[in-house]
Amino acid sequence: MPELLRPGSIDEAADLIARHGAAAAVLAGGTSLMRETYPSDGGYLIGVDRLGLDKVVSRDDGWSIGAAVPLSVLREAVPIPALQAATREIGGPAVQNMATVGGNLFARAPFGDLAPALLALGARLVFATADGETTQSIEDFYAGWTDGAPPRTGLLTRIELDALAGAAAYMKCARRRYSTPSVVTVAACVQKDGGTVSDARIALSGAHAHPLRCPAAEQAVIGSSLDDAAITAAAQAAEAAVAPQTDAVATDWYRRRMTGVFVGRVLAVLA
Amino acid sequence: MEDKLIRLTVNGRDEAVIIQPLATLQDVLRDTLELTAVKSGCGQGGCGSCSVLVDGELRLSCLTLAERAEGAEVTTLEGLNATNAIVPLQQAFVENYAAQCGYCTAGMVMAAKALLDRNPAPSRDEIVEGLSGNLCRCTGFAPIVRAVQQAAQALSDTGEEAS
Ligand code: FES
Ligand code: FES
Q1: Could you point out which of A63, A101, B93, B94 has its C-alpha 20 to 30 Å from the C-alpha of A165?
Q2: What are the residue boundaries of the structural domains of chain A, listed by start?
Q3: Does ligand 2 come within 6 angstroms of the Cβ of B135?
Q4: ipTM > 0.90?
């Protein structure tokens, strides 16, 4: 059984993580790292409940979201409907009161339904390391995953999010309405100049070993008026680009098909 | 790793309990304090049968480390009424046949209470969402939703609290 450590400062937590390396697991809300999934070979659980990371600070141009902010608090504090929708798709109300924003970004597929929303919204992640603070775009963070597992970059302390530019939408394809892992989850944020799409961020989870943006689908709509032809092209591009896994929730075949269907549906909302 | 002494308030009573390392709040409530309305359907956050209120918020006691509940105010089904009288929310479950085997019922009532405390006049969709973390393998859910609708209605008629 691992030992629970509850550091009282971010520096102390970052030091513990650096010192114990792979023997340390960060315990945030405890809704996916739990008794049943604790490492069996001992090691340390580094609790983050005493670090003051449970607040959302509003900036003039966005929000600074503590990594240990529960999903239900995020929903109240950041009124972006696509992000609020994502918080509703993770567990039921009790889980949403416990599970944290930061913790969900480390969830293994097919869990982790917050990531597509934050990828589409262009969030930045701030980590505390033994050598100081480092900031990464959320897509660079996921690009660093190997075999569906996150890199060890230190302690995620906050998520920086700018005010919404353009329009965003979010949809989850799942077997049940609530409290269920995803087949695929799709989020998109589109900016238009006149009637033409000037920028697009389309993000997926469940479609790959980790959440990611889908540049092929984005390129298919940039420069278009988000007409049916462009949406169909984006959906096809997404289907061709993804490499989903087969698990108890869905086969890779079904996930690929639903990736196309849901990229189309999300873009249609924004058309 | 050593046992620890923690203090918390459960159903209005101050308690001091000795916990083993990584004990859950569910362990403390069920095994130490013998509050067995707190069920253990899965132990992994999937069923909601262990739902309790921690500082007024719905939580899963199976996923809450007891050490992190130090100083908290915890309410279980047993704490809804000091004399074990049935509160209106429970009465609505009775009248709507919202319990069959009853295993999910305490958790359902706590989830419903958390919802009504926050939103005394929920729509049907809001009730379904409010109960979405709680599984029932008997009733098909419809009688439970009706019970919560009736409790909400009674609440607005009398202006009383849910429980
Ligand atoms: S026993 Fe806690 S959710 Fe099932
Ligand atoms: S009444 Fe049997 S599980 Fe709900």
Answers
A1: A101
A2: 3-47, 56-162, 167-270
A3: no
A4: yes
